[in-house]
Design a protein that fits this description.
By secondary structure, this protein is of the alpha+beta class. It has six helices and seven strands; from the N terminus they run E-H-H-H-E-E-E-H-E-H-E-H-E. Strand 3 and strand 4 form a beta hairpin.
Amino acid sequence: MLTIRTAEVGDAPEIAAIGSVAFRAVHDSIISPEIAASVVEQTYSIEALTDCIALCATEDDAHFLVACEDGSVVGYLHYDCEGPQPELHRLYVDPARKRGGIGSSLLRELHARLKPGTSYVLLVAERNTDARAFYDRKGFVFDARVIGNEYYMQTMGTKNEPAPPPFDDRALVLRLTLPG
């Protein structure tokens, strides 16, 4: 049975295992293996995830959720209001478990925790057609076109040094406003 709960720092290793594989599976071919590896190194280390989970636990307007089945983490979601506007930073599911409703369950739980009328954004690579279709089905709408790497550096504090090789880095900012 699938359960959704607030992440605990002890979940960081399982989240890192899913994130490092799931992020690379999607983004190696979109932003390049080098850039994807850099993002994974900076945002999916046990230390980075532990810090993020701990910070979310202290903030009223931040949520780091995990989906668990049989005691194991099978997906996760990270949302906060640290940037210029509320943002869903990550929503990933164990690649072997995709299309089983886990991502939808995580989003439903996030929405149940947010105030009615809350509006938030997320970033999706323009070439990530699977994610774009998922978010379209959930009611997200186009808000802006951006350069993904620049957006990540501004909103998540990632760095890419030396400068990355040229690649297709177009991304879309999508918005969802909850009823209310």
